[in-house]
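Reopening this ticket.

The earlier resolution said the output was attached, but the attachment link was broken on my side. Pasting everything inline this time so it's all in one place.
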Amino acid sequence: MEKQLKLFFEFLENEKKLSDNTLQAYKRDLKQFKRFLESYGIPYNRVHEEDMNLYIKELQDEGRKASSISRCIASIRSFYQFAQKRKKVKNNPTSNIKAPKIEKRVPSVLTSKEVELLLDQPKDVDLKGTRDKAMLEFAYATGMRVTEIISLDIDDVNLKEGYAVCRNKNKQRTVPLGTMALKALKEYIEDARDVLIKDENEKALFVNVNGKRLTRQGFWKIIKYYKEQAHISKDITPHVLRHSFATHLLQNGADLKAIQVMLGHSDISSTQVYMQFQDGGLKDIYKKAHPRA
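Inline output:
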C-alpha cells in the first residue's frame, strides 16, 4: 500500500495539480486509513464494504464532524479509483458508501457599514499602518483567498491599468481594483514597501516588518487586531472579507458569472451560495417583470 500511496500522491501533485493544502489533506486522510487497516490486519486490496462501514463508525466514535468524514471517504474513493485504473485492486470498497449529510453553513458576511468601519481602522501614519490599510482594502476589493494575496508579487499588480493578476498553480485570473484599493496600494508601494524591504530582490507585494513575505498567520493576526479596534462582535477572517466581497457585488447587481470568474470558482454552484443574500428588491423586480413569476 505504501508504494501505491506514494504513486497516488505524485499523481495528485503532478497530474491533478492540487494545491499544497488539499494534497496534505489527502495525505492525512489516507495515512490514517492505512493505520486502521494495519491495526485490523486488512490488506488494502482486500478491503470490503463492511470494513469501510467499520472505519466510518470509528471516525464517528472519535467525534469527527460529518464534513471531515465525507472528506475522508472522498479521499479513499479517489485512491481506490486510481488503484483500479492501475489494476492493483479489483473493486472499489467505497462504491456503495454514502457520505453523511452535511448541513450547508451560511457564509459569515459583514454589512457594508461593518466593512467600512473595519477598513477605517488602519491609519497611514506609519509604515505598518500604510501597509495594513492597503492590504485590507485590497482583500475586500478583490475577494482573493488569503493564500493568493500573500503569494502575490509586486509585478502582479498594474496600478496604471487598475488590476491584479492572481496566479494559482496552472491557472490565473485578472481581478479589477477599485479606486480606494488603488489609492491605498499606490501609497503603500511608493511610501512604505521600499522602506520595509531589506533585500531589493524581494518580490513579495505584501511584506512584514522584517521585509519578508507576509505569512497566513501574520495576515490573520492583522485582521483580528483591527476587528478588535473596530469593536465588531462578528468573527472576522480573511475568508469573511471574501464572502462579503461576493455578497456585496451580487446585492448591487453584479452578474453571478462575473463574480464566479473574479472569485476563481471552477464551478458556478460554489458561487450560487451567495444568492441567498440578494436584496429583497431584486425579488420584487423579478416578480413584477417576469411573465411567469
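Reporter confirms the inline version is readable. Residues 3 and 57 are 27 Å apart (CA to CA). The mean pLDDT is 85.
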